[in-house]
């Protein structure tokens, strides 16, 4: 998965999202998982993304109401190994190097799993699935579209489930409709119109306080992918150009991305500290306090929406479609169909326990983990779980979907108003959320090949190239007229070549011919 998503996207970004059951929950019970030889409960360790969402009185990521529920209902003793979300792959690499990695590790990026495979850190799982699985094996047969995402060199290394539409959608653009109305502006449809709207938001006092204190837009460095997508030049995606593949950050179109960001910066349409706002706190604050008219973020921004309405009750925030550029109109980043990618540690001692846990999750137990105790956290309305108390759920089970590792949840836009708590702000946002999901999926993100090439030489080059590219791009955007977008592209291509890019490009083309074009 793309880096922007790693840093910014949350699985539980809504006012009403409801999650796991308590240990006394009403979810279906399973036969206890027992070791066939010893009669003891099976044991397995699993990584879990630590997003800092477990309240102190709820416990920790290792021990909370959700972990207790899973251990009780699955009959398997699961040891959870938290990894900080913003440093997840770095932490997993450290654990692997120390021989302390959990039995099951999961992430969203297939590229990362390919790296683990090349390092010999993980193992094929075909034999384990065939020997120990019933439910997951049947699920794979029913979802053949997932197969390409699970395999390397003809063997299955990854377990996964299908993404719901709400997790295929990723980025989103929001705009202050009340500001448009006040200034007599229409919804922008082209990049030129968007720039003009941002200028008006900056210069024409849209909040009416008589001060020059508003910005055209708020976004941080991690959401530059929104601009990249609108130019069909996402820096982390490979494109097919004249029957050859090329990484997005080296395409001619990427020059236009750099030029667009430079224009935003030079004209003061965005906060000039956005590049250093790595945790998004300053940009977020600008938006929720009503000082930015456009918000480049996720399609689902429930916490920010609530804060904005508390600070500016008259704000009318609406989702906005991506705008067209001279290259046409393209959707914002959308994820591939495979959800979390789960791999088996090569040093795993009990693969049976791991497979039994996969079976338990896929047997609809993911629902009980994600949506909580019926009558406590939700009630069923027309087949949809409806939150009873949004604040209670936020405290008790906001973190729970992280544990629904083989989640199959896929809401329809109209479900959100049913699912949400019935207070006014929750219902107001739920309607906006449904509209935003529809907008996010309306335009197709340009993805020429289903997944990126993966091989050791590319991983090594990327490790060295990425920080250099970030420095070059920062210089182009912030360094004034002497650092043109054209200069920046020359430097990017020069560094790529210096680090072995010619060989990597050849290997990538060979990979494309073998794995994509030749299929």
TrEMBL record:
The record lists the lineage as: Bacteria, Bacillati, Bacillota, Bacilli, Bacillales
Pfam families on file: SBP_bac_1
What organism is listed for this UniProt entry?
Answer: Paenibacillus thalictri
Name this protein carries in UniProt: Extracellular solute-binding protein
Q: Where is the signal peptide?
A: 1-19
Q: Which UniProt keywords apply?
A: Signal
């Amino acid at each position: 998965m793309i880096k922007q998503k790693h840093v910014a996207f949350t699985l539980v970004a809504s006012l009403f999202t409801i999650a796991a059951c308590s240990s006394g929950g009403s979810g279906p019970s399973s036969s206890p998982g027992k070791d066939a030889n010893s009669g003891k409960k099976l044991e397995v360790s699993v990584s879990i993304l630590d997003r800092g969402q477990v309240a102190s009185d709820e416990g920790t990521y290792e021990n909370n109401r959700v972990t207790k529920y899973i251990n009780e209902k699955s009959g398997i003793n699961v040891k959870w190994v938290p990894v900080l979300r913003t440093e997840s792959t770095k932490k997993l690499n450290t654990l692997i190097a120390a021989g302390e990695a959990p039995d099951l590790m999961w992430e969203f990026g297939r590229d990362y799993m390919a790296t683990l495979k090349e390092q010999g850190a993980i193992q094929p799982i075909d034999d384990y699935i065939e020997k120990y699985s019933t439910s997951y094996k049947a699920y794979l047969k029913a979802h053949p579209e997932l197969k390409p995402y699970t395999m390397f060199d003809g063997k299955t290394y990854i377990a996964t489930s299908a993404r719901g539409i709400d997790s295929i959608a990723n980025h989103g653009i929001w705009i202050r409709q009340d500001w448009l109305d006040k200034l007599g502006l229409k919804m922008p449809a082209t990049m030129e119109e968007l720039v003009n709207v941002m200028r008006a938001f900056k210069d024409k006092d849209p909040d009416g306080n008589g001060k020059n204190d508003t910005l055209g837009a708020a976004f941080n460095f991690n959401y530059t992918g929104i601009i990249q997508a609108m130019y069909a030049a996402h820096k982390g995606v490979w494109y097919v150009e004249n029957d050859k593949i090329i990484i997005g950050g080296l395409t001619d179109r990427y020059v236009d991305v750099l030029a667009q960001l430079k224009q935003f910066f030079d004209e003061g349409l965005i906060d000039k500290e956005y590049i250093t706002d790595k945790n998004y706190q300053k940009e977020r604050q600008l938006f929720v306090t009503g000082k930015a008219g456009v918000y480049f973020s996720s399609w689902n921004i429930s916490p920010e929406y609530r804060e904005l309405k508390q600070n500016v009750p008259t704000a009318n925030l609406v989702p906005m479609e991506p705008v067209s550029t001279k290259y046409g109109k393209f959707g914002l980043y959308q994820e591939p169909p495979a959800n979390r990618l789960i791999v088996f540690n090569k040093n795993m001692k009990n693969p049976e326990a791991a497979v039994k846990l996969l079976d338990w999750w896929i047997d609809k137990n993911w629902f009980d983990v994600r949506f909580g105790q019926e009558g406590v956290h939700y009630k069923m309305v027309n087949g949809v779980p409806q939150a009873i108390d949004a604040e209670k759920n936020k405290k008790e089970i906001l973190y729970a979907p992280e544990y629904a590792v083989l989640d199959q949840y896929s809401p329809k836009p109209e479900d959100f108003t049913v699912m949400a708590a019935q207070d006014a702000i929750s219902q107001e946002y739920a309607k906006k959320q449904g509209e935003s999901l529809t907008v996010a999926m309306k335009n197709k993100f340009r993805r020429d090949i289903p997944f990126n090439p993966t091989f050791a030489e590319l991983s090594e080059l990327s490790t060295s190239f990425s920080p250099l590219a970030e420095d070059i791009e920062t210089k182009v955007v912030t360094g004034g007229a002497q650092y043109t977008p054209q200069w920046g592209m020359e430097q990017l291509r020069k560094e790529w070549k210096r680090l072995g890019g010619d060989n990597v490009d050849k290997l990538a083309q060979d990979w494309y011919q073998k794995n994509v074009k030749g299929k």
